[in-house]
Amino acid sequence: MTKTFAELKFPGRLIAVEGLDGSGKSTQIYLLKRWLELGGLKVFFSEWNSSELVKSATSKGKKRELLTPTTFSLIHATDFADRYERQLVPLLRAGYLVLCDRYIFTAFARDTVRGCPPEWVRGLYDFAAQPDLTFFFKAHLEVSLQRILDGRPELKYFEAGMDMRLSTDPYESFRIFQGRILEQYLGMSTEFNFSVIDANQPIETQQSLVRELVAAKLNLASFATPNATVKR
Asked: Which residues contact 117 (CB under 8 A, 6 or more apart)?
């Protein structure tokens, strides 16, 4: 297994969150970010598929349904590599706490479910160090689906796995596709030492657990600016 940033002697630390679409992981990492910032810590946030170099190509490919599983995988790997080299590594060298909404495990799960060979997918990301702490937000499929639909009227084409032709019904396709991704995550949880959070709990309960684990596993004081205090 690749080493963590701590094991590689980086002064910074990387925290990643993973979970199904609708699991609430983005809400949780946003709340964690605000808490750390209010404590006066040096924090940087990065999210999946957000590289300016690649984002427009991904968007066009999705709209025209041109992306095969392989091209999908390669585009996301390019996006990640660009952010890793330009943002994540420099800031970790500068002693920042870097928060990632999705990391390489998203590719390991999604690309494998879409039919790419697992060894090939992992090989694309073998340059990347492991996070120092990875939270996996484990939510029931129906809970995830309802959370998505509470925020907008319908499922997105790719989040429902409609490109895989699993079902003509987007809701059933979502259940099948995300269910398969969940299996991949559960298989990785022990291998990569995920901290599993019950994402069916209230938001506040989950956030308290996240903060406790972060405070217990990382020396937060080392990331603080002068006179900063992190309160639980």
From this structure: none
The mean pLDDT value of the chain amounts to: 91
* Domain total in the chain: 1
171-180 long-range Cβ contacts below 8 angstroms, 24+ apart = 171/145, 174/141, 174/145, 175/141, 175/145, 177/113, 178/20, 178/21, 178/141, 178/144, 178/145, 179/141, 180/113
Picking from 145, 131, 166, 176, the residue whose alpha carbon sits closest to that of residue 29 is 131
Residue 49 lies in a domain: yes
pLDDT (0 to 100) of residue 226 = 67
- Provide the percentage of residues in the chain whose pLDDT is more than 90: 70
Q: Domain range for residue 165?
A: 13-219
Q: How far apart are CA 189 and CA 125, in angstroms?
A: 18
Q: What is the CATH number of the domain that holds 127?
A: 3.40.50.300
* pLDDT single digits (tens) 75-118: 899 999 999 999 999 999 999 999 999 999 999 999 999 999 99
Count Cα atoms within 13 angstroms, Cβ side, for 140.
Answer: 5
The letter for the amino acid at 80 is F
